[in-house]
Write a structure and sequence with these properties.
alpha/beta
Length: 192
């Protein structure tokens, strides 16, 4: 079973991203549970959404405390909360940043790192820093857990207006194309 925690800030669409990703994974025949986290969050406050997927039916309905993958859709949320809390060894971190892997303080238990300048892409595509669909593309590129085509079908079912759907399709494509994947468990730590 694969467990994911998505970190962002209120108003950035972390919960919507988890729903779109869930639809895309179901499109590919996987079993999925998405667990949104709603509390007293306000726009701009740190938020998280959770999901798990597997090839077999999922019986667990509890919260996710030990994710395999962390997706941070906001570059500053890492300074506000411990996004790595409980993360399993050999994990994957998909992060929005302009920084290189060498510029980041990557925990030792991270084996795969996907980096995408999602804010830069969002400013070009949307004119504002909404990075959720871009980071879904980054997740697909980094993990290979879902195809770009399935993400596009998931987006199409998300009830965007026509112009919004076109922008988000472009955003997910650019997120996929412009993500730099690093396999840190390998001694050379080279980017793919």
């Amino acid at each position: 079973m694969h467990e994911i925690r998505i970190h962002g800030r209120g108003g950035q669409g972390a919960v919507i991203a988890s729903k779109i990703l869930a639809k895309a994974l179901v499109e590919e025949g996987k079993f999925v549970t998405a667990i949104p986290a709603f509390g007293f969050e306000r726009r701009g406050a740190p938020v998280a959404a959770f999901m798990r997927f597997d090839e077999a039916p999922i019986r667990r309905i509890n919260n996710i405390y030990t994710p395999n993958t962390v997706i941070s859709i906001d570059p500053s949320v890492i300074r506000a909360v411990d996004i790595f809390e409980g993360m399993q060894p050999g994990g994957t971190w998909v992060h929005t940043t302009r920084d290189s892997a060498e510029q980041l303080d990557v925990p030792e238990h991270i084996d795969t790192l996907g980096l995408c300048d999602a804010v830069g892409i969002a400013m070009e595509v949307f004119g504002r820093p909404i990075t959720n669909t871009i980071m879904l593309g980054a997740f697909a590129k980094t993990t290979g857990a879902v195809s770009l085509d399935a993400l596009k079908r998931g987006l199409a079912s998300a009830n965007f207006r026509d112009a919004g759907l076109k922008q988000n399709l472009l955003a997910v494509e650019r997120g996929y194309a412009e993500t730099r994947v690093h396999h840190l468990a390998q001694p050379d730590r080279e980017a793919c």
